[in-house]
Amino acid sequence: MGIAEDWKELMFSLDCLSKGSAKRKFRKSIKNGWGGLCAYCRSNRATTLDHIKPKSRGGSSLRSNLIPCCQACNHSKGSENWLEWFQRQEFYNSVAEELIEEWISNKRFIDEELDEERTDDRTEVCLTASTI
Ligand SMILES: [Zn+2]
Hints:
By secondary structure, the protein is mainly α. It has a domain at 37-105. The chain is 57% helix and 6% strand. It has helices at residues 3-24, 26-32, 71-77, 82-88, 94-104, 107-114, 119-131, and strands at 48-51, 66-69. The protein has a two-stranded antiparallel ribbon with strand order 1-2. α6 (107-114) packs antiparallel against α7. The protein starts with a helix and ends with a helix. Residues 115-124 have low confidence and may be disordered.
């Protein structure tokens, strides 16, 4: 195996490792992903995690369905459809909407959480991630 392959291998492992540790810090990493601020209003500190699709409507507790949220937004949103609710707020903006949509469609986090022991899945996750 040449140096180039070793290097590739190493970077690949590091990439997987960093995802693994992010997973261990699950809740924390979600909040850090949004700079510690509420993903909706972005002016209050996120002190809660909101189910984007409410649990009462079949929403999951996977990372892609959880978003850092301040108490006020969480309370105000309740079990409404997030987008309908969000578009009515005075802090609504389309960039934030896009970011949240992106977060929701981030399927690789779902893969990680479903079965963290299966290395073949993780390989797939890493390969998928590199094509994004
Ligand atoms: Zn808020």
